Amino acid sequence: MSETPQQAFEERIQALGEHLSQIRRNMEKTIADNHRMREVVRIAENELRKRRDQVQQLESELEGLQNGRLEAKARVEHAMEQLDGLIAEQGETS
Per-residue confidence of the chain (94 residues) as pLDDT tens digits? Predict the structure, then answer.
């Protein structure tokens, strides 16, 4: 039994409809994946901003601690110089 041109045409139309449905499903899947990826990127950007802020805060704290250390070192050195001066004075007076 051979198909009539009408049957062949209808089969082609049906096949094209199935292909279009598959394309639509693939596009919907791609759109959904795109939305998920945008959300992942948004979360990652927020986390990156948070981490950058933490690093800046830690760097600021470290700088403050280093400045405090340098100030304390300078005070100790100054006190040692004064002590050396006092010791030298006492050595001269004895």
Answer: 678 999 999 999 999 999 999 999 999 999 999 999 999 999 999 999 999 999 999 999 999 999 999 999 999 999 999 999 999 888 887 6
- pTM recorded for the entire structure: 0.59
Q: Please count the residues of the chain.
A: 94
